[in-house]
Specification:
single chain, 138 residues, alpha+beta, seven-stranded mixed β-sheet, 7 strands
Amino acid sequence: MIEYEINSSPFFAANKIYCESLEKKFNEMKFDYSGFCNSYGYEVKTSFKRDNLTYDVKCIKHQTTENGVVIPVDANDYFGEEITIAGFNKELDKALIKQGLGNKNASFNLSHGKLYLKIHEAIPDPVDFILSFVKKIR
């Protein structure tokens, strides 16, 4: 369940639309999930198993502001997903991983059958992206 800190901010409205789309997808897939959503961002987590792999997914948006002494400083937004896929029984090809990520602004680490992905942009449907990505790299 996602806890919403409701207010009239247009930023909250935009964040809520994205989080509701995640909720709809996770409910369709019968995934357990948890998180929060407010005007400054969201953090939604889910875990699931498919095809002998375990997936942990965290969708994140945070907003920070810096104090400006004389001139106000704009807020910094961070969007992204942190994904762990565990259970690979063979070594993965790093070139295939890069190719599977396409033009996404992402980094990855591969260690002992686990793939750690950090994608630095919001993905509209992270579940579909992840499942199609795994098909490309297996």
